[in-house]
């Protein structure tokens, strides 16, 4: 284990708080970049997790990354549409020759966005699985789930910092196994969460309602995501559909995705990085996605009415 692992978490929302605090619990030197009400709340009260895990820390938090300096790893935990502006603003302060930049966003597009800014050899796609949500600025509810993160370098190389992050997570009960094919992992997560978010937001339905009242439609929605992923090279197992629904069935029925909560609340969302991206991805490989095309159109109309 490295004597010291320095980590900067950009974005202290639900994902950034959970995974940043777990690394801090594992002994890493973790700082947070935040703004506005979140920055003020953390400075005043600390950063808190409630629910399945309960913990408060008082980390270095700033809106000026120069106060943090170069780190071993940057966890980019903003919304997808904030990733490029954040890296363009912060990379000169946080990223050195050997820094690894870990993505955490849903969908499959973010790693290439990051690679275009910092280079493929620094880019480490991450796939997060835990049900977390913001209660208020600086407070995150851990609702349970697998508590896992899969990480792997975009260029397929082995990296000692990635190995160290993996070891630290495992030491505090966050599953972080070696990954042979991170792109397939990204697509598998998209098949799960992006499909659920799309149909859940369009129908304003919880996971339990999707599995009971709308199951046939849900299956067809997921099949479209699988078909596009396979056409783009995702190496899914033959029983991928069964695996996806086995995962859904193992989760609590009241759950919704952060994307659909944003849509329902009229907030800016990751629409164009999730279901909004699938029609174009399908067109690239000649796969039709009629259900998700319709969901994307419905959700764009909802977003437009909310001013987005």
TrEMBL record:
Class of this enzyme: oxidoreductase
Record GO terms (molecular function): 2-dehydropantoate 2-reductase activity
A GO CC annotation given for this chain: cytoplasm
Residue span, Ketopantoate reductase N-terminal domain: 7-155
Highest taxon of source: Bacteria
Pathway per the UniProt entry: Cofactor biosynthesis; (R)-pantothenate biosynthesis; (R)-pantoate from 3-methyl-2-oxobutanoate: step 2/2
E.C. number: 1.1.1.169
Catalytic activities: (R)-pantoate + NADP(+) = 2-dehydropantoate + NADPH + H(+)
Keywords from the named record: NADP, Oxidoreductase, Pantothenate biosynthesis
Listed GO biological process terms: pantothenate biosynthetic process
Residues annotated as domain Ketopantoate reductase C-terminal: 181-302
InterPro entries: 6-PGluconate_DH-like_C_sf, 6PGD_dom2, ApbA, KPA_reductase, KPR-Related, KPR_N, NAD(P)-bd_dom_sf
UniProt entry tagged with the keyword Oxidoreductase: yes
Function: Catalyzes the NADPH-dependent reduction of ketopantoate into pantoic acid.
Family according to the record: Belongs to the ketopantoate reductase family.
Protein name: 2-dehydropantoate 2-reductase
Source organism of the structure: Cutibacterium granulosum
């Amino acid at each position: 284990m490295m004597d010291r692992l320095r980590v900067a978490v950009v974005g202290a929302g639900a994902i950034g708080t959970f995974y940043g605090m777990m690394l801090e619990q594992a002994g890493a030197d973790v700082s947070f970049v935040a703004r506005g009400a979140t920055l003020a709340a953390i400075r005043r009260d600390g950063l808190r997790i409630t629910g399945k895990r309960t913990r408060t820390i008082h980390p270095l938090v700033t809106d000026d990354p120069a106060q943090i300096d170069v780190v071993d790893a940057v966890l980019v935990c903003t919304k997808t549409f904030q990733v490029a502006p954040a890296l363009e603003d912060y990379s000169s302060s946080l990223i050195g020759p050997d820094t690894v930049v870990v993505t955490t966003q849903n969908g499959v597009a973010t790693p290439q966005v990051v690679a275009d800014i910092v280079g493929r050899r620094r880019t480490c796609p991450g796939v997060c699985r835990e049900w977390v949500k913001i209660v208020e600025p600086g407070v995150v509810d851990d609702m349970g789930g697998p508590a896992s993160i899969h990480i792997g370098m975009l260029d397929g190389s082995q990296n000692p910092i990635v190995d160290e992050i993996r070891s630290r997570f495992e030491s505090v009960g966050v599953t972080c196994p070696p990954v042979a094919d991170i792109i397939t992992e990204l697509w598998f997560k998209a098949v799960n969460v992006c499909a659920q978010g799309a149909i859940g937001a369009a129908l304003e339905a919880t996971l339990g309602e999707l599995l009971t009242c709308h199951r046939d439609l849900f299956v067809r929605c997921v099949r479209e995501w699988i078909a596009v992923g396979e056409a783009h090279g995702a190496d899914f197992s033959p029983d991928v559909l069964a695996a996806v629904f086995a995962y859904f069935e193992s989760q609590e029925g009241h759950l919704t995705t952060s994307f659909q909560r944003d849509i329902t609340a009229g907030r800016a969302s990751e629409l164009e990085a999730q279901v909004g991206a699938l029609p174009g991805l399908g067109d690239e490989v000649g796969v039709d996605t009629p259900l998700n095309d319709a969901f994307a159109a419905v959700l764009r109309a909802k977003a437009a009415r909310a001013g987005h």
